[in-house]
Amino acid sequence: MSSATIEQSVDIPEAKAGSAIWMQHLRLLVLAAIAILTLFWRDALAMVDAWWNVSTYNHCLLIAPIIIWLVQQRREELAKITPTIWAPGLLWTGAASVGWLLGEAAGVSFARQLGLLMMLQGAVITLLGPKVTRGLIFPLFYSFFLVPFGEEFVPFLQTITAKMSMLFLGWANIPAFIDGVFISTPTGYFEVAEACSGVKFLIAMVAYGTLVANLCFQSWQRRMAFMIAAVAVPILANGIRAFGTIYIAHHTTTDFATGFDHIFYGWFFFAFVLVLVMAIGWPFFDRKLEEPMIDGDAIERRPSGSLKLTAMAAMIAMAVMVAIPVLWTSALSAQSSPVPDAIVLPTVAGWERVEYRPSFDWQPRFDGANHQLLGRYRNPSTGAEVDLAIAVYDRQEDGREIVGYGQGAFDPRSQWSWSRNLPAPAFGKAIQITAPGPVVRDVQTFHRVGSILTGSGSAVKLETVKTKLLGGNQQAVAVLISAEKVDEAGPAAAMDDFRKALGPIDKLADEMAGLR
Description:
This protein has about 525 residues and is an alpha+beta fold. It is about 55% helix and about 15% strand. The protein has 16 helices and eleven strands. The protein has helices at about 5-40, 40-55, 60-75, 75-80, 90-105, 110-135, 135-140, 155-170, 200-215, 220-250, 255-280, 295-300, 310-330, 455-470, 490-500, 505-510; strands at about 175-180, 180-185, 190, 350-355, 370-380, 385-395, 415-420, 430-435, 440-450, 450-455, 475-485. The strands form two sheets. Strands 4, 5, 6, 7, 8, 9, 10 and 11 form an eight-stranded antiparallel β-sheet that branches. Strands 1-2-3 form a three-stranded antiparallel β-sheet, covered by helices on one side.
């Protein structure tokens, strides 16, 4: 028998053994993934719902197929690696479990969904081992783009787009005035709305740029340069697009410019930006098409950690880690936190209640609140009018958070739009919002949660986490003081006078929640 025949006869059993080992580990991984997705099905369903129904995240529908393709790319090389059960992978699962728990306590869907994804990653790391994880490091990293994120960048991007538009309008000698995200020209009044911030194209371009950086570059310097371009070009292009809309309106009509912008923005803008970024990076691609993404033999030769577990021990450990936060939050949710059956707006010394007749209807948004009040007060001596809104929650939970996207001073689904941040009063937050007319309104917001009074959304979340995990009063109250701008001086002075007459806001909030 020739040596080649001997080698072949040895390779076949080894290949079969390797395939059998892979199948064992993959069965465990599938079982673990099904268990995790079943336990956290609400978060998984919320992610899919966002992918399908929120245009900002429609690109996420492509991420899962791309990840499957990335794994398929590496399949032949991965087959050369022997999977193992690896104990340190449980650390990733544990961190994910804690992250989900904090997200559940704070009512932050992003943290819960990120925790779910990381649990699935932890299952891969634990059940396939460090060598396979090294071979799958990019697909695992790329899976983070499955988690919807980016809405928090909208105000910043709106502001940047508005300022770039003003710069370009100045270069074009078109007279313009900016007020927050609103731009006035001799032709009309323009708003850089949330839909015009460019956030959905920016997020999609970051995901696309990351993929290209991995597939087409080897040099980390070139990868970083390409990613900078993938971020900068969409932001710059969106500023040019907003300027172009105003420029066209200045030389034609606002209706024509708006119609042109909708067609261009919806059908051609992203394709144009994508082609532009690729054209910039193309000359610098340094990875050959036929070059494998990983070297399975080299990875297999590297020493692996000695901290290993039996399959049964690993599955039990993961089950305990992912179950504890669910059991903990379920136990805490049984705590009682009653609020009064009915509440009324307070009497304010020196101010009288009058009929609420806004120039443009204004109603703060607090989904799931137990009580919501809104009324207008008038100072008889000055004639100033100020509105007071109060929202009371017996507890915060999914869909009933006192702070979050869309909650608070205005409903983004209405015709009110954020315009700018204003100097904040003590323990509060102040913004200016604008409605068609334009009608301008200042709003000061105060949140009472646990033992703190604050205008910071982050502080609210941290205090909510503390009260939910360690026990304490679960009631939450929002107090909003607001007034329309009727002259150049603005309503700030009247709002300050009203706030002083109202007395300590933390005391008022506690009375509304039945805690005093």
